[in-house]
Amino acid sequence: MKCKLLSILILALAAITANAQDDFNPTLPGEPSARYKVTVGISHPEAGTVYGAGSYSTGDEVSISKNDAWFPSYAEVFYQFKHWTLNGTVYSSESSFVYRVGTENANFVAVYDAVSADEITSRVYVRMEPADASDSHTTDGQRYFEGDYANVYCYENSFFEFLGWYDGDRLVSSDKDFNYLVGEDDVTLTAKFNYNPVIPGEPIGNQDNVANSAKGDVNNDSSVDVQDVVSCVNVVLTDSDNKKADVNKDGLIDVQDVVTLVNIILNIK
User: Fold this and answer.
1) How far apart are CA 181 and CA 173, in angstroms?
2) Domain segments of the chain: what residues?
3) Total Cβ atoms within 10 A of residue 75
4) Close Cβ partners of 118 (under 8 Å, ≥ 6 residues apart)
5) What is the pLDDT of residues 85-107, one digit of tens each?
6) What is the pLDDT of residue 235?
7) How buried is residue 188: exposed, middle or buried, by Cβ count under 10 Å (0-12/13-18/19+)?
8) What is the model's pTM?
9) Would you say residue 213 has pLDDT above 60?
10) Which CATH number applies to 207-268?
């Protein structure tokens, strides 16, 4: 009897469960979000590099950008950025922007015009005053399109203090590294320096060797020590172009410069 009742109870529970399942309609587990492709191209591959391509979900924010290639001033053809297109339609004239992914694939193209060097009239010339104040600075005479920003920079040699960039007598910038808005005409920007062999707060050792100290600072860290010897040896071994490594000023960079540098250090000590 007990077995019969137990069987009936099991059948009843099974019937109730089956009926409940027929009425229960749970939400299906969420499907993975759809992914959409964002492709980024460029009309002239030699004009630069573009960024932002990938696979994204709806609502994702993607940074679309480009980086113009650098061309020497003697190049015959230059490339001027015009705008971005999205799926063949003009989308933005900004160099970079943020795109919010929608519900379809997106194809961006950075459009450039090829321009002959003869059509570019604006050049930026740079001068150092005095001339030996900086060995590292912006390339002189670079061509730019009107409205472009030219990155202008310089790094002073030892014992020189940077005063500013000037256009004639007019101060253009007090920063050693800045972006100059190119106009229609050529411009000559002069980086002016003040020679100051005595740096306040720093020991200068034997005053008779101040000139030699500046001359032997191969790694340009405002001091003359064994690190400069290492730098000088590297220049000799790799045949690098570093004018500061020509310590003895004979027009050659060789082992004699290393010997001269060692003697300078010994004399300073």
Assistant:
1) 12
2) 35-116, 122-195, 207-268
3) 13
4) none
5) 999 999 999 999 999 999 999 99
6) 77
7) middle
8) 0.49
9) no
10) 1.10.1330
